[in-house]
Amino acid sequence: MSRQALLDKLVAVVTGAATVAIIAPLVSIIYEVASRGISVIAHVGLIDFLTQPPPPPGAGLGGIGPAFTGSLLLTLLSSAISIPVALGLALLAVEYPHTWIARAVRGLVKALLEIPTIVISMIVYSLLVIPMGGPSILAGAVALAIVMLPYTTSYVETYLENVPWIYREAGYAIGMKKAQVAVRIAMGIARRGVAVGIVMGSPEHSARQHRYSSPLVL
């Protein structure tokens, strides 16, 4: 066996061992959570598990109703706020590529990406929580929507930029207005990518989810 072949096998063995060492704890955690969680769900019932509140300490098994409902409402409300705004900003940046509008949109997106989420929470706290007299799901949704906005805008803008301009020119040739070309042609062709961008931009479906908890602290 040549020296190069021996080195290749050694690298393969070391890489495999490192992969197993990394994956094994993750598999163990998933198994532990799944085994215990399934037994609780089987005992309580799926509907009660999703709707009932957790019991007091030592009072038996309960559910995750408040946490589940709150997360669901936050996701829906923050998405309803951020997605239309993100789509509009992405369309402006793509359809007016060499204007101050595109520069302003891209500057806003970059600025929001650089702002720490705790700063966003302080701004929302000052503008919404204090005037409303206390925390609310609306304030949390607005904070998460601001955090979600630059990611969704960036993803959607990338997919819209990949639509060939020849399709837009064909729309103009048959008398369509710019808004019609942007919505019907550009968005229509890139609809699958836009859907992916919306999903990837959502904090509840992102690996950055734990970073997004700070806007809800205040």
TrEMBL record:
<comment type="similarity">
    <text>Belongs to the binding-protein-dependent transport system permease family.</text>
</comment>
<dbReference type="InterPro" id="IPR051408">
    <property type="entry name" value="Phosphate_transprt_permease"/>
</dbReference>
<dbReference type="GO" id="GO:0055085">
    <property type="term" value="P:transmembrane transport"/>
</dbReference>
<dbReference type="InterPro" id="IPR035906">
    <property type="entry name" value="MetI-like_sf"/>
</dbReference>
<feature type="domain" description="ABC transmembrane type-1">
    <location>
        <begin position="68"/>
        <end position="218"/>
    </location>
</feature>
<dbReference type="Pfam" id="PF00528">
    <property type="entry name" value="BPD_transp_1"/>
</dbReference>
<keyword id="KW-0472">Membrane</keyword>
<keyword id="KW-1133">Transmembrane helix</keyword>
<protein>
    <submittedName>
        <fullName>ABC-type phosphate transport, permease</fullName>
    </submittedName>
</protein>
<dbReference type="GO" id="GO:0005886">
    <property type="term" value="C:plasma membrane"/>
</dbReference>
<feature type="transmembrane region" description="Helical">
    <location>
        <begin position="12"/>
        <end position="31"/>
    </location>
</feature>
<keyword id="KW-0812">Transmembrane</keyword>
<feature type="transmembrane region" description="Helical">
    <location>
        <begin position="72"/>
        <end position="96"/>
    </location>
</feature>
<keyword id="KW-0813">Transport</keyword>
<feature type="transmembrane region" description="Helical">
    <location>
        <begin position="108"/>
        <end position="130"/>
    </location>
</feature>
<dbReference type="InterPro" id="IPR000515">
    <property type="entry name" value="MetI-like"/>
</dbReference>
<feature type="transmembrane region" description="Helical">
    <location>
        <begin position="136"/>
        <end position="156"/>
    </location>
</feature>
